[in-house]
Design goal:
The chain has one domain: Double Stranded RNA Binding Domain, CATH 3.30.160.250. It contains 1 helix and 3 strands; from the N terminus they run E-E-E-H. It has a 3-stranded antiparallel sheet with strand order 1-2-3, covered by helices on one side. The model has no long low-confidence stretch (mean pLDDT 89). InterPro entries: HicB-like, TA_system_antitoxin, TTHA1013/TTHA0281-like.
């Protein structure tokens, strides 16, 4: 199973991973490698606890960036 993960870096230097197709499934770590291990654990726990069928969820397509003036 492959799931998309959005990764951002917060103001404290932590990497934050979010799985858009699994609402509320996210984690953070000091390195990308550690983040990827933690997000795999978070996904497994999410599926175990929720009992969802991944096939029922929307497919993650990608991320687009937009510029907003005045911000």
């Amino acid at each position: 199973m492959k799931l998309g993960v959005v990764i951002e870096k917060d103001e404290d230097g932590y990497y934050v991973g979010n799985v858009p197709t699994l609402p509320g499934c996210h984690t953070q770590a000091k390195s990308i490698d550690e983040l990827m291990e933690r997000i795999k654990e978070a996904i497994a726990l999410y599926i175990e606890v929720s009992g969802i069928d991944i096939g029922e969820h929307r497919e993650f397509i990608g991320v687009q960036f937009v510029e907003v003036e005045g911000c």
